[in-house]
Amino acid sequence: MASSVTGSGLPSGGKVFSTLPDLFFIPEFIFGGLVWTLVASTRVLFTNPLGWVMFVSVFCFVFTTIWFFIFIAGGNQSGIWPALDAAYHFIAVVFYLSASVLLAYITLNIKTAASLSSEVFKIYQESIAAVVMAFMATLLYFIHAIMSAIRWKSS
User: The MARVEL domain covers which part of the protein (predicted)?
Assistant: First the structure.
C-alpha cells in the first residue's frame, strides 16, 4: 500500500483530511468565512479599520483555499513546502491577531452607541460574533503554525 505522506513529510490527496496539522484547514475555512460574512453583513460605521479586517479575512480565506487545493493535488512534493507551510500560517496568525484586536476595539466603541437604537444594537451583536470567530480563526491558525513548524523541523 502506497503512503500518502511524501518524503518531505507533507501529506497529499485524501491524507490531508486525516493528518495534523492539515486537519485544521476545514475549521480555518469555516471560522474565516464566518468572520468575512459577519463583517460584510453589517453596516460599516468605521470604514478604514474594517477594511483591514475584511482584507485579512478574504486574503486568508482565498489563500488557505489555494493552499488546501495544492495539498490535495499533491503539488507540495518538493523540500521547500514544509517551510512555506509554516511561514504562511505564521503570517496568517499575525494578520488575524491584528484584525481580531482591531475588531474587538471597534466593537467596544460600538457598545457605547448600542443603547441608542436597535439598529446599532444589531450591529453590535454581529460585531461580537465576528470578534469571537476572528479569535477562533486566530487560534486555529496559531495551532496550525506551531504544528507546521514542528513538522518542518522534523523533516
Answer: 16-153
What are the grid coordinates assigned to 119, written together? Answer: 439598529
What global pTM score does this model have?
Answer: 0.78
CA distances from 65 to 59, 69, 70, 109, 129 (A): 10, 6, 9, 33, 23
In Å, what is the CA distance from 134 to each residue of 2, 112, 128, 145? 39, 22, 10, 16
Residue 24 DSSP one-character state: G
The angle at the Cα of 19, spanning 78 to 53, to the nearest 5 degrees, equals: 85
* Residue 66 burial (10 A CB sphere; 0-12, 13-18, 19+): exposed
User: Residue 144 in contact with residue 27, Cβ under 8 Å?
Assistant: no
Q: What is the CA radius of gyration of the chain?
A: 18
Q: Is 155 helix (H, G, I), strand (E, B) or coil?
A: coil
What is the C-alpha to C-alpha distance for residues 141 and 116, in angstroms, rounded to an integer?
Answer: 37
What pLDDT, in 10s, does the model give residues 86-128? 899 999 999 999 999 998 988 888 877 667 677 778 888 888 9
